[in-house]
Amino acid sequence: MDLRAIAAVAEDLVRSQWEVFRAGHGVALARHKQDGSPVTDTDVRIERFLHAHLAEATGIPVVGEESIGCVESRTQEIEELHREVGTRSYWVVDPIDGTSNYLRGDPSCAILAALFVNDTPLIGVTSLPVRSTTITSVAGQSMTVTVGANRVELPAGGWGTPGEGVGLIDSLVPGFRDEVTHMVDALIAAPKPRMRISGCVGANLGLVAVAGVGTTVSMSPHVWDNGAGVCHLTTRGAHVTDLHGNPWTVGSDGVIGGDQKTAGVLSASLQRIGR
Known about the structure:
Layout: H1 3-15, H2 18-24, E1 30-32, E2 38-40, H3 41-58, E3 62-64, H4 65-68, H5 74-85, E4 89-97, H6 99-104, E5 110-117, E6 120-128, E7 133-138, E8 142-147, E9 150-155, H7 164-172, H8 176-189, H9 201-211, E10 215-218, H10 223-235, E11 239-241, E12 255-258, H11 260-271
Parallel strand pairs: 3-4
Antiparallel strand pairs: 1-2, 4-5, 5-6, 6-7, 7-8, 8-9, 10-12, 11-12
Helix pairs in contact: 1-3, 7-9, 8-11, 9-10
């Protein structure tokens, strides 16, 4: 399996949906799913496209948030995922991560895709169409960041050593790293059962991974929210666990990724409130 070639195909297919995504940004109308979360016609259109074309181009089955998202428990969610794909390799996609942001015209919203092999994410694609930015990682090999016409390759490993990624993030989303640091510090001091950084889990995990420094958290329990970001973080050498400090799995209730010491303190803090 040539992961770099597969990642390039996935990135191209995701980027081909930018205009569809942008056309509904800030103007799309939403209806609500059984769990109360919003969904738009754009979600459905992009997921159907990726379901058909990503599977055809790579020979690997695809499941998405809109096809497995309305279940009653985390166990059922993972059972449904495995029932849908029935193989050891599968794609999980989220056609619009950060739907509430998308509906109100906030640029922090993304298309996410992650390739899992034996339930481990080996390719992650986080694409932010409104920011003309795509983050693509191949586990243990490299990360590429494309902003407009500029494409930068960042090395695998080396977490905690400031490099080119810090400058990329500070220019793309000024103040983002300070916001993440403040949120993590606040959670350590006064843990809460739910907290959102940017309103878009995929953007949060991906942008912190690009920076290659700091620590972040996702309190989403959903594999489609976290898969691409976990791949980005592990590729860049971050310490990645669930909210309890255990190794992350597709059934985890969230993600902590970054500096090992800070991640441990944050995990201990969250466990005080039963997370």
